[in-house]
Structures are given as C-alpha cells and as structure tokens.
Amino acid sequence: MLIESAKFISFFQRREITSCSVVFGDEEFFRAQIMDEIRRSFRDRCEFGERLVFDCRKNNRYDELKSVLRNSSLFSSSRLFEILCNPSQVEGLLKFISCYRHGDFFVLILENLSWQDKKSAWFVAGCKGDEICFFSCIYPSPDHFIAWINDLLLSKGIKFSPEVTEFLSTFFEGNACGVYQALEQIILQQASQKIITADYIQENIFSTTRYGVDDCIQAVFSRDRERFVRILNYLSASDESLISLIVWRLSQDLRVCCAYHSESPLTPKQEDSFFQKRKIFGERRSFFIKAIKLLVESDIVQALSCLNFIDKKHKGIVPGYPWDDLLWTGLFLMRDR
C-alpha cells in the first residue's frame, strides 16, 4: 500500500507495521520520523529484538546481507533489518527477503524513486496490495501538508481553532521540521491559552514573522551585506529556532537557481514553463531572475552543502554554533568575483 504524508501519523496510530516496508523520498524530516515510528513499533512488539543496518548500495554488502539471511541460526529472535539500497535493487531484494522473513521486519530505504520506477510492476503491485508499505517521503502538496499538520496537532493534544492548520501551512511552506519545532514551542507556552489560534501563534510564538526571514533571503540575493548581517543578528536574538526556517528557505531558493542553470531555458516560453512548474509568479519570479544572474552554479552547489551541514549543527548531530556558519555562507554567496 502507498502511504503519503497526509496519512503518516494516522497510519501509525491505528495499526502495527507490516513485515516489509519501503521508505523513499528526499524529504529528510519525514524519513527520520517514519524510521523512528517503525523502530518504536518494532520495540513494542519485540522488546529484545535486534536492529541490523546494511548498506547494499555496494554489491559486497548485498552479498553479505544474503549470507546473513541464509544463516538460520540468526533467527532465534526477531530482527529489524534496515537496508539502504538503490532503486534498481528493490525488486530483487523484495523477492529475496520474501523467502527469509521468519518473523523479522525489513525496511528498504531509498533516496528517491523516479517516475519510471513508479511505473514498474513491483511498485504498482506493491501499492495495490497490503503486504508491503510504501512510505512516500517527498515534498508534500499543500493539501497533504495541511492534513499532516492537523494530525500532528491532534496527536500532541493541542486544541486549536480551524484556521491554525492553514496558517501554519502557509507560514512554513512545506517545511515539516519547522512546523514540528513550532509545535514544541507552543506546547511549552500553552498553559495560558486553552485553544490555540493563528493570532496567538503570530503574537506569542512567532515574535519574528516570516517577513524577517524573507528580508534575510532577499538581502543575500541582492548582495546587501550590511542588511543581511543586521537582519541575521536580529533573527538570531529573537528566536534561535528560526534558523531551521532560514536554512530551509535559502536551500529551496538556491535549488530553484541551480535547476535554472541546469535546464537553461532559452526562450520566453521555456522560461514561463520553468517557473509555472514550480508555481513561481509575479514579483517572486522577478526576484529569481535577478538572483540567477548574480549566482554561478558552482557557488550554489557549495552553499547547499554548507546549509546541509548547518542543519545538522542545529539538530545537534554535529557540534558547533550554526548561526556563525549561516553568516559566512551568506557572505560567501555575496562575495565579489
């Protein structure tokens, strides 16, 4: 069965995991959440079960996995196999592990699936059946994002007015990690407010509005160093959790610029198609056209790598102060050539 972001939370609330799952997509927050839920469900069912991780993207590890699965002595208790693999390996892995389950659980983890992969017989059949769960961890559509936010609010026991889900969806524009962190902050401050409203969130939680974040991004792309430093200092002093939103917004905008360089639309019609496909119109389109002229592709790629590292610092995966790195990344993009 295919499970999209709108159904993630409700799925794990109402049923146990199946013995085989496929987690695909490049939305890292959703992937991490799904894996946490699968591990929790496994622990609930098999308190003393063992978790094994295999990276089968290299053939020797694929062979090692096969050897482990064939070893009958391994199956004295249930195991959770987390298998990193390539799309081309999925069909073979699904057929192979179907013979070696023995009460164990398997999760195939992919970066993403192409549209050709999604037309494959194994994917179509798997989505229609109930034996395998396909978790689609891709950038959510607006409707799916609102549904996910609604379930997240309910799961945390937050009472809220009807406009809150759309407000959060509009504010964070698909940034699930930003929503999650905002709700953690709401829970801490909820004692004085029985029912959460959009006005309450705006006034008490987001002391710095999204316009401050937009100004920060625009300062980078317009090469206004003084303005960028001033806004960044203000944002960091106002609410340190805003770095998640800044990093996400800057990364998304840089990816648009990188895609433009890669596709190189030559005619007005091609350019219109490029921006329409990404739902970029009006002033925002003009903003991107100016930004694209100021940035070279190699700088964009390097900045995206830095932003990924900054995000890991913010999440505590690696040590360090992320705001300093964000400052230098912005100045790097604005440097004179």
Describe the structure.
This protein is α/β, with parallel strands linked by helices and 337 residues long. It has 3 domains: 2-136, Rossmann fold; 141-206, Helicase, Ruva Protein, domain 3; 208-337, Zinc Finger, Delta Prime, domain 3, CATH 1.20.272. Helix content is 60%, strand content 9%. The chain has helices spanning 8-14, 28-45, 59-70, 87-97, 121-128, 142-155, 164-172, 176-189, 198-205, 210-221, 225-238, 243-263, 268-277, 282-294, 297-314, 322-333, and strands spanning 2-3, 20-24, 50-55, 79-84, 105-109, 132-136. Strands 1-6-2-5-4-3 form a 6-stranded parallel beta sheet, sandwiched between helices. Strand 3, helix 3 (59-70) and strand 4 (79-84) form a beta-alpha-beta unit. The radius of gyration is 22 Å and the shape is globular. One of its GO terms (biological process) is DNA-templated DNA replication. Belongs to the DNA polymerase HolA subunit family. Its EC number is 2.7.7.7.
Please give the structural blueprint.
Elements: E1 2-3, H1 8-14, E2 20-24, H2 28-45, E3 50-55, H3 59-70, E4 79-84, H4 87-97, E5 105-109, H5 121-128, E6 132-136, H6 142-155, H7 164-172, H8 176-189, H9 198-205, H10 210-221, H11 225-238, H12 243-263, H13 268-277, H14 282-294, H15 297-314, H16 322-333
Helix pairs in contact: 6-7, 6-8, 10-11, 10-12, 11-16, 12-15, 15-16
